[in-house]
Amino acid sequence: MPELRKDPVVGRWVIIAHERAKRPHDFKSEAPPRQESQVCPFCEGNEHMTPPEILAYRDYGARPNGPGWRIRVVPNRFPALKIEGDLNKRGDGIYDMMAGVGAHEVIIESPRHHVSVSSLAEENLREVLWVYRDRLVDLKKDKRLVHGMLFKNVGEGGGASLEHTHSQLIVTPIVPISVWEEMTGALEFFNYRGRCIYCDMVQQELSAEKRIVLDSPHFTAFCPYASRFPFETWIVPKTHASHFENIPKPGVDDLGQVLHQVLGKLELALDSPSYNYIIHTAPFDHSELPHYHWHIEVIPRLTKVAGFEWGSGFYINPVPPEDAAAFLREVEVVPSYAHTALRERAPGSRLQPHASKVP
Fold first, then answer.
1. Among 134, 238, 287, 328, which has the minimal tally of Cβ within 10 Å of its Cβ?
2. pLDDT, mean of residues 74-96
3. Which of 250, 216, 239 is nearest to 126 (CA)?
């Protein structure tokens, strides 16, 4: 018998279709990715093919906008929003509008043409997380900007236009509706119970154990009770925090390992599917919120959203999250070490961020 499950944060209902249940091997891999041109603009040596970098983690002696980097941030060549200009908020009758002011940046996660995150080292992912934090902290200073969303698209089904592993940051002058819904639902729970719903969710999932994918000192990864998609996985901090950019060093160290494990499990279990991950964090113009909790949502693209989903707001998930979590728990990911993804550092070398202004 199918089940209707209610998401406790936003109130969205999901259909868990037990009778249509699929096992991991029932999901066919998508066709191989389309062939790109032989020259990749994100590979080391092709820095001239991107806009001038905003930030880079480099080896000592390496010059800006040239080789010698480990992670590089550049403006998107075709930005959804642009940093220049005033908001110019205005109305047209019942309609509201403003200028498309914001930021759209690309975080190139490795100088090598890696396609799979599981081929990166955990240390590489930790540096990526530090770059995420650095960019949010910097853009938060711009009073025109309100919210930063970090996300990664993998594979054609996930919306990736280039194979080379990268993620993106889009900063907007308004709070996205999905974040607003989460904040509103979390606030209603807080006003009623006096507790953070995400903190309660972590404790209940750890107690029940049925939907846990992995547990670490600082984070819990689980398939949410009302999963919208097969093998959807959330990574939630155990300690309450509303803003990702305030993550401390022990959190970054642990999250690099957790993110590597979760993505590696999905790639191994599901034959390298397309997927997205999104970091949900509180708006810049809010101080620490007792009711909201930053987290990462990882969404494999194994099923299609069609007419019923668009028309009703329901999602149909053919894999119960309990089954998905049980399967992922059994998948072992062999740790990758720094030399597989980061260049050998000379004795005495250390991180050397280089920052420049967006032209």
1. 287
2. 86
3. 250
